[in-house]
Amino acid sequence: MRPKIVRENEGTTTMMRRPISRRVLAFTAACMLLLNAAAQSAMACTGVTLTAADGSVVFGRTLEWGSFDLHSRLAVIPRGYKYETHMPDGKPGLAWKGKYGVVGIDAVGKDIVVEGINEKGLAVGLFYHPGVAEFQTYDPAQAEQSLGPTDVGQYLLTNYVTVDEVRAALAKVRVVPVVEPALGFAAPVHFIVTEPSGKAIVVEFLKGQMTIFDAPLGVITNAPSYDWHETNLRNYINLSPVALPGKKIADLNFKPLGGGSGMIGLPGDFTPPSRFVRATAFSKTARPTATGEETIYENLPHPRQLQCAARRLRRDRRRQDPRDAQLHDLDERFRHAQ
């Protein structure tokens, strides 16, 4: 049985609860249909995590790939789906039968899950990691315990529930440089894995070794390595949502000209280090939210971006039924967000 392909997508928001219900999974699928209309012509993906007062954990991301159309679709993968991987020399790689159902976003018309959540609430996101990712050396004698970079997401989602299980499972497999034809080389990627409790890890491939970092911030971008990003945050510990206090200089009183002075020094460019800093600053100073549903709206694109996305859908689908469910969903969310 093949995964059921539902619809296109360019951005995702994933809600996790403990335990996750069918209603939550369905709502997650609906949220994953949202388009991010502010995509840059680059590989500038950013992921953040927010937690509601009721314990719901919401992981949201952008999927900004500007090199070519990924032709991403929303896929529903049933339990029991059988996977087979192939190695650089054409030999069969790791094969498995999935234990859990998954809702995810695929890419290049293949069973490549670039972002998804399984029925138990485990979420996995694939992010580009150019110039840094260096996979384990392929050993034909270990082909049956090996898989390619773009196989990792679906392997974890269909088999595991917690990040501890993921750690243990990854210690038993090898991720080797299998070429992705759409790129012409092995996809240089890293992953963030989040369980319903909010506990998260980042999986990277550095100097030919798999490296796993704890990720309590729940934030991820791209290059360089994850520990470098965390160290770089020390340059921005002055950032605060609280405005700077006034000062008296030479009998003159100086006060901030307006709100936001506590964030002076926040980088504004779109490089991965700057996006990592901004994502951390914004996610850790986000307003408190009571429920998962409310937190999803906090994690969504700006209302104007939703409006632009709706307009783009109208343009692209003007010949289709105006009652298109995805367009209706965007319009409804824009109206509520206003």
CATH homologous superfamily designation: Penicillin V Acylase, Chain A
| Helix share bin | 10-25%
Number of strands: 19
The structural class is alpha+beta
Q: Whole-number radius of gyration?
A: 21 Å
Chain-wise SSE layout:
Blueprint: E1 4-8, E2 11-16, H1 22-31, E3 47-51, E4 57-62, E5 73-77, E6 82-86, E7 92-97, E8 102-107, E9 110-118, E10 123-128, E11 146-147, H2 152-157, H3 163-170, E12 174-175, E13 179-180, E14 185-186, E15 189-194, E16 200-206, E17 209-214, H4 226-232, E18 247-249, E19 252-254, H5 272-284, H6 292-299, H7 303-316, H8 325-337
Parallel strand pairs: 11-12
Antiparallel strand pairs: 1-5, 2-4, 3-4, 5-8, 6-7, 8-9, 9-10, 10-15, 13-14, 15-16, 16-17, 18-19
